[in-house]
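Input record, target 12 of the design panel.
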């Protein structure tokens, strides 16, 4: 190109050949050829590859979102099942506790009844022993009173009639 410019007008020197108006038609032609070539390369090779990558990426994202939604549904179902199992376990535990309380109460009532029976038996035995001791003490008091009354009468110089002294002491003790 430079040789053509020198041959055409040797005195007309341009510092930048792309600004030489005489070569504009040639430059425009090659620019159009280059742009068409770039356009064809981009539309035939680059855009399909980028479109494939974008489609694959979109598919991967959609699969991941679908998998995440499925996992979320499974997690919600698992949580629901867990909460139901927990509620069932709590209800079963409450039943077991109630049954254990009832058994303990029944055992406690039986033990209380046995203890009450033992206490009543011991109280009856104690009352019998107290009554025996009271009767024995009354007999002892009666005997001591008869002996003492007989000694007092004998001491004052009277004759002692054991039957009369016994009757007098018995009458006095009765009231």
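The sequence produced for target 12 reads:
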């Amino acid at each position: 190109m430079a040789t053509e410019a020198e041959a055409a007008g040797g005195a007309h020197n341009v510092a930048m050949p792309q600004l030489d108006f005489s070569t504009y038609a040639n430059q425009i032609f090659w620019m159009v050829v280059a742009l068409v070539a770039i356009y064809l390369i981009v539309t035939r090779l680059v855009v399909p590859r980028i479109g494939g990558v974008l489609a694959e990426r979109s598919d991967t994202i959609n699969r991941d979102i679908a998998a995440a939604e499925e996992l979320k549904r499974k997690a919600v179902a698992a949580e629901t099942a867990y909460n139901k199992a927990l509620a069932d376990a709590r209800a079963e535990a409450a039943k077991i506790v109630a049954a254990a309380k009832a058994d303990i109460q029944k055992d406690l009532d039986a033990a209380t009844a046995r203890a009450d029976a033992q206490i009543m038996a011991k109280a009856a035995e104690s009352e019998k022993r107290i009554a025996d001791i009271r009767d024995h003490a009354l007999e002892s008091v009666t005997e001591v009173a008869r002996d003492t009354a007989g000694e007092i009468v004998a001491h004052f110089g009277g004759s002692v009639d054991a039957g009369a002294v016994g009757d007098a002491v018995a009458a006095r003790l009765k009231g």
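The mean pLDDT is 88.
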